[in-house]
Known about the structure:
alpha/beta, 15 helices, globular, 5-stranded mixed β-sheet, 39% helix, 7-stranded mixed β-sheet
Amino acid sequence: MSDQNDADKNDNGPKDTGVPVTPRRMPKASIEKIGGRKLKPATLMMGHGYDPVLSEGALKPPIFLTSTFAFENAAAGKRHFEGITGKRPGGSEGLVYSRFNGPNQEILEDRLSIWDEAEDALVFSSGMSAITTVLLANVNQGDVVVHSGPLYAATETLINKVLGRFGVTFLDFPAGDSPTQVAALLEKAKVQAAENGGKVAIIYLESPANPTNALVDIEGVADARRQVFGDKAAPPIAIDNTFLGPLWQQPLKHGADIVIYSLTKYVGGHSDLVAGGVLGSKAYMDPIRAIRNTIGTICDPNTSWMLMRSLETLELRMTRAGENAEKVCAFLRDHLKVDGLGYLGFISDASQQDIYDRHCSGAGSTFSLFIKGGEAEAFRFLDSLKIAKLAVSLGGTETLASLPAAMTHLSVPEERRAALGITDNLVRISIGVEDPDDLIADFEQALEAV
């Protein structure tokens, strides 16, 4: 403070040049390369997009608990709102109101973009608010949504029932379908859309599928889209990458246009927050941002701050969980009371292995465990666990187990669950970062109770 006081006394402070100066909007450029070498995401998570000088030297970004932001002048306010309302392309160019943007959200979005090498990213109040906003930004009355199956049950409900109330229809294909089969369905979707006075609005994928771990051939779907639509007026390909991303699968590199995350899961990673993320080029993000601005599905500052904390250990946590899952599944694979495993490290189908080899860099830590018997046997197994927690969700530091047919996918009609392979003996396991031998001991004693 003494330096500033001296400057004031000597009248040697900054001169008024007539040019608005907004230090908070001109941070020091982030260091992304050293000696021509591009820094890795794990390094960039420690400070990318944030300059401590702008926040009193605070090493970590403060939580900006404000509903609104003061403009430099009236002209700046007008300029920002031109961007917010879409009258001028390029976004607000500044902070406006916390339903639109904020420092915590913008820093988080910058860091999220790094993992998938995306041009732009947006954060949301939950995974489902992210999915809903993406769909609302792309569909109109009479349109058709083409999606893979199975999907997370709430996503299926949104597409099949909620959007259906507004004249949107859908067609779906099994996750393992070939490009030829997907192309045939897209042709059918074009006819259906024409009959309804709409278009094929979006191709929505989930890979690996929840809860079966079935993989979708992203490149194959992109090839099928090109075959049916060419390069013009083609519907975007969006994919829920929650099970493997961002560490073990990066769909933008394989033909997807929009990547969606439940940040609640691996990115948050501590089972203490709910959030969602969407990544892609600005051309796809701008319409989604406009809908987010209107309906207010943005992530709050506190949750954004917590996600920035979690990103610092993302690679460590996911790597440890993946290593644990490999050891646990090696034990479960040949157990007499196990009827099968939906684990990407032990794929038996050649076409699924081909997709895995092309798209994935790791098998993940969430898998399906098929208990010999039915619901009663699965319940006995779940009720006997001592370390693993009986809870829905996945990707946390702790191991979780649930029965999708009786819990997360209970709302899916029984006949559809059967067609999708979501059986009464399918237990979904998400392995955490505990000691792997302790986890094996827990699963062993629980299986003895079956």
